[in-house]
Amino acid sequence: MKKCRLLFIPLLLLVLIGSFSAMAAEKITAYVSTDEELGRQLMAAFTKSTGIQVDWVRLSTGEAQARIAAERNNPQASIWVGGVGLDHIAAKKDGLTAPYFSPKAAKIARQYKDKDGYWCGIYNNPLCFVYNTQKLAEKKLRAPNSWASLLKPAYKGQIQMANPQTSGTAYNVITTLIALHQGDEAKAFAYLKKLNQNVSQYTRSGAAPGKNAALGETAIALGYCDDQLRLIASGYPIKIGFPKEGTGFEVASISMIKNGPQFETAKKLYDWLLGEEAGKIMAQNFLLVFAKVPLRQGAIPLTKIKVVDQDDEWGGKNKDRLVEKWLNEVYQK
């Protein structure tokens, strides 16, 4: 009997150690480039649904790409969630991400996912103008209704947008303007140089200009529609508008990080983000999700907006060059 007990104790310890090891494996690190509150909602819901803990860091799209590049020889995260698809395409080009064909991606339209499995879209989101109605009234300014109108001398110092070095939103502005000028980069950058004269601040993140407009710190801002709709729903004195020439949009995406330390477990988060539960959370945040869930009242589908014929593959592959061009010809002038 004593011998049996002695044999049983080591076996019990092995079982417990194995159980603890399994529990420890069910944990992942993620870089999240959605709105911070949305990221919090998504990660909390995933953990509640699966029991898998997510240690996540909120980074703007450009910051996430730069962090993944800096850590490429020793990755600290396994999945990149959200952020402008242009940067996910650039990350693929730079060898920072790895392919994963999620079974949940089968129903996503072909134009919203990578044919090689390196990224998959989770929602659409159009660029818009946002303006503080009180600030415009105070300065006796009309709301902008076109890209051309943003160049008016009356708007000098009244506009904010993000910096394309750190913000995928701002880089999407550059690619949108190139598309509007039928691929003529010289004309697009001539416009950006003129716009620069009216910009008071280039912020780190794409959401910051809209928040600053809501607080009355700027009259006009450029950003994605969902951020502004949430601010409007919270009661801030702002309105949105879309440029009559046409606007661009993001295909917010997810990617697996190459050689990520919890690669297999991160696939579970990837799959979950493409499903109905995550889709409902994103839809409640005014996002145009690809999952088959109802959109929130007030969300504005792309079919209701004039959008440009943008080439995201080209934009992703030319990001480094175009951002460098913007720094040299616009920002530092």
From TrEMBL:
InterPro entries documented for this protein: Ferric-bd
CDD domains found in the cross-reference section: PBP2_Fbp_like_1
Keyword Signal among record annotations: yes
Pfam family, one: SBP_bac_6
Signal peptide: 1-24
UniProt keyword annotation of Phosphoprotein present: no
SUPFAM superfamilies registered for this protein in UniProt: Periplasmic binding protein-like II
Alphabetically ordered keywords of this record: Signal
One Gene Ontology term of the molecular function aspect: thiamine binding
GO cellular component, one term: outer membrane-bounded periplasmic space
Membrane-spanning residues: none
GO biological process entries: thiamine transport
Protein known as: Iron(III) transport system substrate-binding protein
